[in-house]
Amino acid sequence: MKKTILAGALLCSALSFSQRVQKGESQVNVGVGFASDYGIPFYVGVDYGVHPDITVGAQASFASKNYSQVGYSEIKGTWFGIGANANYHFNTILSIPNKWDVYAGATLAYNSFSYDYPANWGKNVFNDKEDSGVGFAGQVGARYYFTDKFGVNLEYGGGNITSGGKFGISYKF
Question: pTM for this one?
């Protein structure tokens, strides 16, 4: 019984001291996206607190998918994105507890789209999705910290191949 009470007290203590990234702190984010046209994208990113309510960061994402139709050879699509972001965190202005992190911001990213076509296909099958280049987009998201170091995240938008949204884990260091 004493062990159960002690474990519960430690858990409550850890949850009460959970907090979002502060000025001078960093966190790494890892997870999957749900941009369905490109398969399942994976991402990794890092955020750094430059102000109590502002972070800047970098992110990379990757996805691949095989396309096939009856009677045709398979086409493999590969996508890679890398970018920089900045986010404003609304905790202070909206009096949100620090175990939650609600934010919005912008991302500037380079996205590379490439396709491996079989010899019998023309090169312009996916011409509407072959535009590699730089893009700018917004994002909104939230994190919940279970402990002072570990949390989960959910974000919509972001200007890269995870633009449909993404979810994953965050770890502060």
Answer: 0.78
DSSP conformation letters of the chain: -HHHHHHHHHHHHHHHT-----TT-EEEEEEEE--GGGS--EEEEEEEEEETTEEEEEEEEEEEEEE--TTS--EEEEEEEEEEEEEEE-HHHHT--TTEEEEEEEEEEEEEEEEE--TTS-TTTTGGG---EEEEEEEEEEEEESSSSEEEEEEEE-SSTTTT-EEEEEEE-
The long-range contacts involving 120-129, CB below 8 angstroms and separated by at least 24 positions, are: 120/73, 121/72, 121/73, 121/75, 125/75, 126/75, 126/77, 129/37, 129/77
Q: Which domains does the chain have, with CATH numbers?
A: 2-172 (2.40.160.20)
For the stretch 58-100, pLDDT in tens is 999 998 888 776 566 677 888 899 999 999 999 999 999 989 9
